[in-house]
TrEMBL record:
Coiled coil: none annotated. InterPro entries: 6-blade_b-propeller_TolB-like, SGL. Gene3D superfamilies: TolB, C-terminal domain. It comes from Rhodococcus maanshanensis. This is SMP-30/Gluconolaconase/LRE-like region-containing protein. Residues 116-250 form the SMP-30/Gluconolactonase/LRE-like region domain.
Length: 263
């Protein structure tokens, strides 16, 4: 089961791979299809974020952890040069989405169990994660805009599929809601990303689609279909990866490339 993806900027795609039973891993994929393992032997890998020469990734992102309120979740940091791994934060419950703000703070989401919502991990005190808000439904997909001013949070298990728009400087402030067409139960919204065009791109796990949402107008456009159990979506970055194309992961272990039509 591939949960999330990122690019290391050095020519590799990074994939968080989980299993129903047993440990997970962060796998690597080259543009030519060669696979490898960056780090293994941990449970429930979730979001991945590149931070300079390090990658940050969550662990403990399992349904059992969410439903049982287990606090075995962590955010880990792995240096791409040395392979040194350190724990940035621990005591988290089912950290799913992961985003890094301009000030270095980290955000994670939780979409199962009690206290679903958004959690902040302060850069100055990463050992004290705090709940920011619990009014976002089954919070899952998480991304910040290119300028760092806006945070987008998607949901999964609610009756309507929605993307919440928050101010990065006032996460507890007002919320703008962008609605995604279709039934929430059928869509099962998953991870999302923000493109250079400012639009939000969301993977619909249940519907097997990728949709584009324009924050300015709220309009939704389906840009990819026939993608069963799509879990994550990112624009290509780094040598060998098309920056105009979207790459997706799936719970069936596949990776797809969505190439925009020629103008």
């Amino acid at each position: 089961m591939l949960e999330n993806l990122a690019f290391d900027g050095r020519g590799k795609m990074l994939l968080s791979e989980g299993t129903l039973f047993g440990d997970g891993a962060i796998r690597t994929l080259s543009p030519g299809g060669k696979t490898g393992t960056l780090v293994s032997d941990f449970t429930g890998p979730g979001g991945i974020v590149l931070n300079g020469d390090n990658i940050l990734f969550t662990t403990g992102n399992t349904a059992m952890a969410g439903l049982s309120n287990s606090k075995n979740g962590t955010v880990e940091s792995l240096n791409l040069d040395t392979g040194e791994q350190t724990t940035v934060a621990k005591g988290l419950t089912m950290p799913n989405g992961l985003a890094r703000l301009a000030n270095g703070d980290l955000l994670v989401t939780r979409n199962l169990g009690s206290d679903q919502g958004l959690i902040r991990i302060p850069a100055a005190q990463p050992h004290t994660p705090t709940s920011v808000r619990t009014d976002l439904g089954s919070a899952n997909g998480l991304a910040a805009s290119a300028d760092g001013a806006t945070v987008y949070v998607g949901n999964t298990f609610d009756s309507n599929t929605e993307i919440r728009e928050l101010s990065a400087s006032d996460l507890k402030g007002s919320v703008r809601t962008l609605k995604v067409a279709g039934s929430g139960a059928t869509n099962a919204g998953d991870d999302l990303t923000v493109g250079a065009d400012g639009n939000v791109y969301m993977a619909l796990n249940g519907a097997g689609k990728v949709v584009r949402v324009d924050p300015a107008t709220g309009s939704t456009c389906e840009i990819g279909s026939d993608l069963p159990l799509t879990s994550s979506v990112r624009f290509g970055s780094g040598p060998g990866w098309d920056p105009a194309a979207l790459y997706t992961t799936s719970f069936d272990g596949s990776v797809h490339k969505l190439t925009p039509p020629k103008k």
